Amino acid sequence: MPLWIAREPVPDNIPNCDYCGGPRRFEFQIMPQLLSILKENDLDWGVIAVYTCLDSCVADNSYKEEFVFKQDVELKNI
Ligand SMILES: [Zn+2]
Fold first, then answer.
1. What is the pTM assigned to this prediction?
2. Per-residue model confidence as pLDDT tens digits over 35-60
3. Among residues 9, 12, 44, 65, which one has the fewest Cβ atoms lying within 10 Å of its Cβ?
4. CB burial class (10 A; 0-12, 13-18, 19+) of residue 17?
């Protein structure tokens, strides 16, 4: 399960794998510290959560498109 940076939004429905139709599961997350390592000022995110096919099915021996959910930092009334 991802370590979210905000309470919401969180994905309520992870779509099944486009290739085998099976369920996906949370695989890894990318934290915003990467932005400072990349010295990137035009992008921003809180957490990027990546969900991949539970069966790791193979599709034509090439890269596969998986499901990514981006959560931004929760901004309250500042
Ligand atoms: Zn699959």
1. 0.85
2. 999 998 898 999 999 999 999 998 77
3. 12
4. buried
